[in-house]
Amino acid sequence: MSHAVASPVVTIAVGQMCSGPDRAKNLASASSLAELAVKKQAKMLFLPENFHFMGDSSKHSLSIAEPLTGPAMASYAKLARDSGLWLSLGGFQERSETPDTHLHNTHVILNPNGDIVQFYRKIHMFDYATLREVRPPQSQSQLAKRTT
């Protein structure tokens, strides 16, 4: 006779936000989403790609790119600590080995202590354009690299 073991239910939150070039405003939006996630008793908040910054050009993104040890990630580590949430931070503009021409599009997981427990540097670039829209391919300004 087998005994079924009840698995605990874990609530997660998926945050949708409209990021722009104002990094302080983006952090405020993420903080509001974290506050709501805590009220809903979530244990982890998933934020979208470009949660920290969405600029109008690759050059702009390159100019704000920081290492994972920089002040931007420190702000999100503080958010994790203050909220007690795990944070899944989609696409962060991480400074690369060639900072004048490329950055890493890095997904970061923070624990509730604000520690980086995992990160992934995107390896598949979104090189896409339609007849109505011409956009520079990601591979022109982002490095494809896998690191965990």
Structure overview:
Helices cover 25% and strands 21% of the residues. It has 148 residues and is an alpha/beta fold. The chain has one domain: Carbon-nitrogen hydrolase (Nitrilase/N-carbamoyl-D-aminoacid amidohydrolase, 4-Layer Sandwich), CATH 3.60.110. It has a five-stranded mixed β-sheet with strand order 1-2-3-4-5. Helix 1 packs parallel to helix 3. The radius of gyration is 17 Å and the shape is globular. The termini are far apart. The mean pLDDT is 87.
What's the β-strand tally? 5
Outline: globular
The name of the CATH superfamily reads Carbon-nitrogen hydrolase
CATH-assigned fold name: Nitrilase/N-carbamoyl-D-aminoacid amidohydrolase
| Helix and strand element order | EHEHHEEE
Largest sheet data: 5 strands, mixed
Structural class: alpha/beta
The CATH architecture designation is 4-Layer Sandwich
Topology, element by element:
Elements: E1 12-14, H1 23-39, E2 44-47, H2 58-64, H3 71-83, E3 86-95, E4 103-110, E5 116-121
Parallel strand pairs: 1-2, 2-3
Antiparallel strand pairs: 3-4, 4-5
Helix pairs in contact: 1-3
For this entry, give a set of tags.
five-stranded mixed beta sheet; globular; Nitrilase/N-carbamoyl-D-aminoacid amidohydrolase; 148 residues
